[in-house]
Design goal:
Helices cover 0% and strands 28% of the residues. A hairpin with a 5-residue loop joins strand 10 and strand 11.
């Protein structure tokens, strides 16, 4: 594991605010590295704390990956494709969310992998990525590709962190292990101009991390060149 990381520069706000979503307790940690083993809870959220800051802005193009969809209610964003995985943020009603792909949880409920574009000053970083329950999205999402076959396969050169937003100072939500199959979805620069890759860590680890956990990975920790990935976008 790397012992030093470059730190993204936050814009204007330096206070840390705890964002807590109230709900029933989450399910116990997974015991198998497939999303079929996930038990969907009826809870809409679990407690979550976000680093407080204005969102870092990227130099990526403004159109970016996915299609624009909008939550019909304030809804949770999850690190894995199931409502019992770790909640890492919120997609607020009416916000612009980039819908990238969709996948079913073990109950057959559709989840959409999305990027919540605006974020909230002092609460949540712009371009936070996570899975959103499809029923909480206004638009039909049946035309989105399946997450299982989406993206280009890349491989970490070391065990490396996965982050909820495009910067190494955003909350770390998981690990992409050396040599694992990661689906590279898109690229974006952090506020210091360092490239991050939004990826899905396919295998997971029994009892440690859910299969198909999604997060931003530092490009320097990926073996393959990533310049041909599409831009994640910023608006």
């Amino acid at each position: 594991m790397r012992t030093a990381r470059p730190v993204s520069v936050l814009i204007a706000v330096s206070a840390v605010v705890a964002l807590t979503a109230t709900a029933a307790p989450a399910a116990s940690s997974p015991q198998a590295p497939t999303n079929r083993d996930m038990a969907r809870t009826s809870a809409a959220a679990v407690p979550v704390t976000q680093h407080a800051a204005n969102a870092p802005r990227s130099t990526a193009g403004v159109l970016g990956v996915g299609k624009s969809v909008h939550p019909r209610v304030d809804t949770g964003m999850y690190s894995g494709p199931g409502l019992s995985t770790g909640r890492i943020g919120t997609a607020w009603v009416g916000d612009n969310v980039a819908g990238i792909c969709r996948v079913q949880d073990n109950q057959g409920m559709w989840m959409v992998l999305g990027i919540e574009r605006p974020g909230r000053n002092g609460v949540q970083w712009a371009n936070t990525a996570g899975y959103i329950w499809d029923n909480d999205i206004r638009e039909p999402t049946g035309d989105l590709p399946n997450c299982g076959g989406y993206g280009r396969s890349v491989h970490p050169r070391v065990d490396t962190g996965m982050y909820s937003g495009p910067g190494l100072s955003t909350p770390r939500i998981g690990t992409a292990w050396t040599g694992d199959d990661v689906a590279g979805l898109c690229k974006i620069n952090d506020s210091s101009g360092r490239r991050m890759v939004l990826g899905i860590e396919r295998p997971g680890r029994n009892g440690v991390q859910w299969a198909n956990t999604v997060g931003y990975i530092w490009d320097n920790d990926i073996r393959e060149p990533t310049g041909d990935l599409q831009d994640c976008g910023v608006s």
